Task: structure prediction
Amino acid sequence: MKKQLLFVGDMFKQNISLQHYVIRRVEDSIGKCTSINYFNESDRSLFLHLDQELKENTITVIATSTNSFTVVGKLLSTITEDNLTLSEEMLMPSHSIQYEKGSYLLSCSSAKVNVIVAMENELLPNILLEYSDETQTLHIFEESMDLLQQHLKPLAQTHNIKITFSQIVDGWIKVTASNNRFGNMELFLAAVKEQYQNRVIASPNIAKHIIDQLGTHQKKITFAESCTGGLLSSFFTAQSGASVVFEGSLVTYCNTLKANWLAVDENTLAKFGAVSKEVVDEMSEGALNVSSADYSVSVSGIAGPDGGSDEKPVGTVCISARSKTRLQTEILHFKGDRNYIQEQSVFYAVKMLLLTDKEVFFQ
Result:
């Protein structure tokens, strides 16, 4: 079934935080959106779009501004040959099957539409649509894309499962699996877990999985960041419950703070430079020493677009992950703009954290 989100109102393109808030809330209710589209209040193509979608097997959430809420109601009433009625201090189609303040649900043939009004700096009204299509997310590590596809495609075909692949970073592939008709998801998942023991995590939210596993084993994490500027910390603190397992993070952009806060040797900095295996090793050691954490991860690199050299071009990133008993360090060469390099650095750091202790994170 097609699941779509429509934004109606210019403010959504201007207010990215509000836009992301709406997307999170919608996808919590109906799962990953098949499509997300944007219209302004006077866009004539909106009527044609709604008219077509209401003829298909779709579920649609329409997020409107205060100004466009009534406009959308009029369009839906015209398409469904209905009229507007006043309920809960809002105008909405009279055939709405469910409603509460700021939100109403409309059913038309095999399509369902939930219209909500979104206002800046306010809680969203409840989303009345709910949908579950038994989609499973698998994160598989330490395998190439070619080999993984060779192994999983026949397995998925055997159990009548549709799968898609996406490489997050090298050595980390996200697999999305959904049931075809008469598919057997349970047997498929069991077979994958058997084949990729200690290399697969079944979870739609990898950060939440890590937090849960750390909590179960009463372990804690800490970070030392340079080029990612706190992005690694944000990846985890976006999740409820992070405070139980996350000790904190030191963002040390300049060498002085690397030395003063993390006890990185000034001779190491002078000899090897801030973006080096030696420095991130000392950063992760320093982060572990100043905290009561069980695991630490440090990141230092050149996100660009400036600052690169022939020896260390833009995209060079060094990451160190350690526990009390194990240390691993890698020098990476990412490609892309500044933000993409930072994001790849975060995901690679997460991967290295997971591989630091498979008994904790893969059980």
Summary: The mean pLDDT is 96.
